[in-house]
Design goal:
Layout: H1 3-7, E1 11-15, H2 20-35, E2 40-46, H3 47-56, H4 59-63, E3 69-74, H5 89-109, H6 112-115, E4 123-127, H7 132-140, E5 143-148, H8 152-159, H9 161-166, H10 198-201, H11 206-215, E6 225-228, H12 232-242, E7 249-251, H13 255-262, H14 280-286, E8 293-297, H15 306-319, E9 322-326, H16 343-352, E10 353-356, H17 361-366, E11 370-375, H18 379-388, E12 392-394, H19 401-411, E13 415-417, H20 424-437, H21 439-457, H22 462-476
Parallel strand pairs: 1-2, 1-4, 2-3, 4-5, 5-6, 6-7, 8-9, 8-11, 9-10, 11-12, 12-13
Bound molecules: uridine-5'-diphosphate.
């Protein structure tokens, strides 16, 4: 095949940042592209995550119906037995820079794909936490897109960081945390210092610089388009502020729900969990009354201290509510093997609680027994809760969580924000607010948002239409996007 011909065959390479919360939505996007008629799709992930995907999900079977789809792997530079947990996050970033980046360049500049009878890559869709894949795409003269598994609002906060610096609003250390931030258009009336991501508040580090390079308007590392796992009706005012500053934005969320539409409404296990799922909790939920259970999960990387865990535990038990709590094996930072759970907690938990190491979260949230979700406010969890119509109690910790939880409580009004507190009395009170006192009010907004989310992923909805537009464009102009 002549070079021009080869280059006109679309071949999309998707490349997530090596963290579960990042792998999962990009793999959902890969499946959406395949289901929409793109044939040459490659999903490049670390050996570690690939192994987990094959061990704990049905990804291999699901993708086997797309003959031109390929999984490819790359090393993350860490030894097999490295915990890859949040306390070692620096190692993950170091591995990305020192090992993944050169290997990625080598792979893309080699004739590897031709040697395995694949056309050359025409478009790279990479995680917004990494800028080098976009640089590689520019050097190769092919299209590039950054994928954001976070909300548009968080991305807009990052985009405006220099404006905040110019306005003297950043950096801050001992500021009044309730002071409003005025230099983010669309958020002037509700975003406070305490709602900014913690990494934006102080001095900027390397990680932040890399991620911000992509959103800085003047930078030559701008991708041809940005794909966001959100939906128009949820973040319309913010998206309207953003669009003039971005070459092109495709909102395709909630991806997991769009996937279910493309599978003709069949409920599929789109959640590409990288842990072994404990299905027994569903049997436990089956025996509970409707809306009686608080589901508690802090996602895949947030950790807490023993003291914090005990505050949550007492708060939950003292609320008198039934609860299903995900406690990952690596959840406690200062793990002490000699620690004994106080006897009162053990007996009360036996009566009203259920603890698992990892749950089938989408299934749990959709279960009629679940009436509320105590969450770290990860974007994936928020979208899943919205689709299931379950109101939230947010305990934000890192990354986008602080901004997300402000939107949940004050903009969308589908939950409560417990930020910057962690004591048993507050937890008890807020769990009761979530499940009883404030439930009706929260449910009114939640039902509306849930309906809008469903509409966006249904035929004729905004995310559905945007996916069609994206795929048509990728097919018609593979490298000239
Ligand atoms: N999740 C799950 N089972 C659990 C806890 C979490 O399947 O017990 C999934 C959840 O459905 C979501 C993802 O893990 O898709 C967590 O993503 P999120 O963006 O909420 O948080 P992160 O893990 O990135 O902090």
């Amino acid at each position: 095949m002549a070079e021009m011909d080869q280059k006109s065959v679309p071949h999309v390479l998707l490349f997530p940042f090596p963290l579960l919360g990042h792998v999962n939505p990009l793999l959902q996007l890969a499946e959406l592209l395949c289901l929409s008629g793109l044939s040459n799709v490659t999903f490049l992930t670390t050996k570690h995550h690939h192994h987990r995907l094959l061990s704990f999900t049905d990804a291999r079977t699901r993708f086997s119906s797309f003959p031109a789809f390929r999984f490819e792997t790359i090393s993350d530079g860490l030894p097999d037995d490295h915990p890859r947990s949040y306390t070692h996050i620096i190692d993950i970033f170091t591995g990305v820079r020192s090992v993944m980046e050169p290997s990625f360049r080598e792979l893309l500049f080699s004739n590897y794909f031709q040697s395995v009878n694949r056309p050359p890559v025409t478009c790279i869709i990479s995680d917004g936490l990494m800028s080098f894949p976009i640089g590689v795409a520019k050097e190769l003269g092919i299209a590039s897109m950054d994928f954001r598994g976070t909300g548009a609002s968080f991305l807009w906060c990052c985009f405006r960081h220099l404006n905040m610096v110019e306005a003297g609003e950043l950096p801050f250390k001992d500021a009044d945390m309730d002071k409003l931030i005025t230099s983010i258009p669309g958020m002037e009336s509700f975003l406070r210092c305490r709602d900014l991501p913690s990494f934006l508040r102080g001095c900027r580090g390397k990680v932040l610089d890399d991620s911000l390079k992509i959103v800085s308007s003047s930078h030559d590392l701008r991708p041809n388009a940005t794909i966001i796992n959100t939906f128009e009706d949820l973040e319309a005012p913010i998206l309207a502020e953003m669009r003039p500053h971005f070459p092109k934005i495709f909102t395709l969320g909630p991806l997991h729900a769009l996937l279910s539409t493309l599978h003709s409404g069949r409920s599929i296990s789109s959640n590409n969990s990288l842990y072994e799922v404990d299905q027994n909790c569903i049997t436990w939920l089956d025996s509970q009354q409707p809306n009686s259970v608080v589901y508690v999960s802090f996602g895949s990387i947030v950790m807490m201290t023993h003291t914090q865990m005990l505050e949550f535990w007492y708060g939950l038990v003292n609320s008198g509510k039934r609860f299903l709590w995900v406690i990952r094996h690596d959840f406690v930072i200062d793990k002490d093997e000699s620690f004994q759970v106080p006897a009162d907690l053990t007996s009360e938990t036996k009566e009203r609680g259920y603890i698992v190491e990892w749950s089938p979260q989408e299934e749990v949230l959709a279960h009629p027994a679940v009436g509320g979700f105590l969450t770290h406010s990860g974007w994936g969890s928020i979208l899943e809760s919205m689709m299931a119509g379950v109101p939230m109690l947010c305990w934000p910790q890192i990354g986008d969580h602080h901004t997300n939880s402000r939107f949940v409580s004050d903009v969308w009004k589908v939950g409560l924000d417990m930020k910057d507190t962690c004591d048993r009395l507050t937890i008890e009170k807020m769990v009761n607010d979530l499940m009883d006192t404030k439930r009706d009010e929260l449910m009114r907004s939640m039902e509306e948002i849930s309906q809008l989310a469903r509409k966006s992923v249904g035929k004729g909805g905004s995310s559905y239409g945007n996916l069609e537009a994206l795929v048509n464009r990728l097919i018609a102009y593979p490298i000239l996007f």
